[in-house]
Amino acid sequence: MAQPYRHYIDGEWVSGAGSETFESENPATGESLGEFRQGTPADVDRAVDAADEAFEEWRELSRIQRAEYLWDVYHELRERTDELGRVVTKECGKEISEGKADVVEAAHMVEWAAGDARHPKGDIVPSEIPAKDAYMRRKPRGVTGCITPWNFPVAIPYWHMAIALVEGNTVVFKPAEQTPWCAQIIAEMFDDAGIPDGVFNMVQGFGDAGNAIVENDDVETVVFTGSAEVGHLIQDKLGGVAGKRAACEMGGKNAIVVTEAADLDVAVHSAVMSSFKTTGQRCVSSERLIVHADVYDEFKERFVEVAEEVAVGDPLQEDTFIGPLIEAEHHEKVAEYNELAREEGVNVLVDRTELDADEIPDGHEDGHWIGPFVYEADPDADLRCTHEEVFGPHVALLEYDGDIERAVEIQNDTEYGLAGAVISEDYRQINYYRDRAEIGLAYGNLPCIGAEVQLPFGGVKKSGNGYPSAREAIEAVTDRTAWTLNNSTEIEMAQGLSADIKTKED
Ligand code: UN1
């Protein structure tokens, strides 16, 4: 297809109303990966009109018929995993095993949604009245706006869209502006699957396009994954509007608790994975390590050793662990937080904000490179660096003394509540953490990244607004109906309520 790449609206590839274009940039090299049309609010409105119009027919199909289109997408994701994994890596800089895992996670989500189409949905509920049949059924809500982040450019769009489509909604997809190539491929897959015109639409672009989705009266549900800042704006806009729904997944200031009963091999491995995979740019990445005094020195020594040695480099190479940050602006933000931590008086243990020249691979001088930044801080100090989400390999070691209650108190000392892990061989400590850590995704003796789609994905507090993604996305994209049918010609009421109509004569 000739560049610039276009939007996909009502079954057609269209240039849209605006004349602007934007480039996708490889964050490891700075090279352009392609030119894309920049969507305008008018393009979004056109896509919403198409989705609104397509909704009436799409909802009339059975769930199983709708899922057939997704099975085609599933097979394509599976057949092209390696190729698409490389695209993910080139466009968002995650190392290659992560690029492929993103595509595999997408396939799993589509498989879950399409397979679920043949599963029972809803409940048969007892009634007090023998002749009454009571059910809990679900109805699609209509046009669903999906606004997705760059860090899982294939998986998260399918988290939003796969269940929405199977349940009978139509979709307007606004991908992150950093990863339009991945979005282009997603749209091509729906086109190849022959999905009916208007059921799936994609508009490339920036915040004004996303905002047009949120502000369009015909969009019933907005599903958003991204920063807390934008998520709260969406919630504020839609929260008070009758009938509208916003399902938002936002960030975290996630922690790993390492107790005195921890296996330190498991602890160090879990911490390294959680803090440095995806260069710390997962909403579930860990930026706090809460470590018991009895094991603190040994843990610190081992963690610091890995943080000094871990391989930063070309994400397409299998021996790389940390790829670049997504873009120059974000690099600046992470570097500023590293600087802020120093200003706040922490004790810096590892500072690879500036990499040595020989660490940067040839031809990659324009990449947004950064290495780990590790420091120790007082868990009781009111520091910005230990409370605000940085979204980079910026990690605080917080030493605690005392029992698991104390560790969980530190864990909960954040406005966020997304993910976390406890490392311990003591089941009482693990159970206490499981029940009291204020998070939606909790792990024992594991990293706090790597959730699977057959579990709900979502946080509490500032991290989410109660509509999880992955398997529980159904809650966001459907309405429940309590449906009761009388099989008799008599009307009989529950609770002993009289059904007699009494007249003046009685
Ligand atoms: C995100 O970072 O926005 O749990 C999602 C994980 C992945 C999803 C992360 N399955 O690490």
UniProtKB/TrEMBL annotation:
- Does the entry feature the keyword Ribonucleoprotein, yes or no? no
One of the record's GO molecular function terms: oxidoreductase activity
- Region (Disordered) residue spans: 17-38
- A Pfam family (short name) is Aldedh
Q: Which SUPFAM superfamilies match?
A: ALDH-like
**Domain Aldehyde dehydrogenase: start-end pairs:** 13-479
Q: Where are its TM segments located?
A: none
What Gene3D superfamilies does the entry give?
A: Aldehyde Dehydrogenase, Chain A, domain 1, Aldehyde Dehydrogenase, Chain A, domain 2
What is its quaternary makeup? Homotetramer.
Q: Which family does it belong to?
A: Belongs to the aldehyde dehydrogenase family.
- Its recorded name reads Aldehyde dehydrogenase family protein
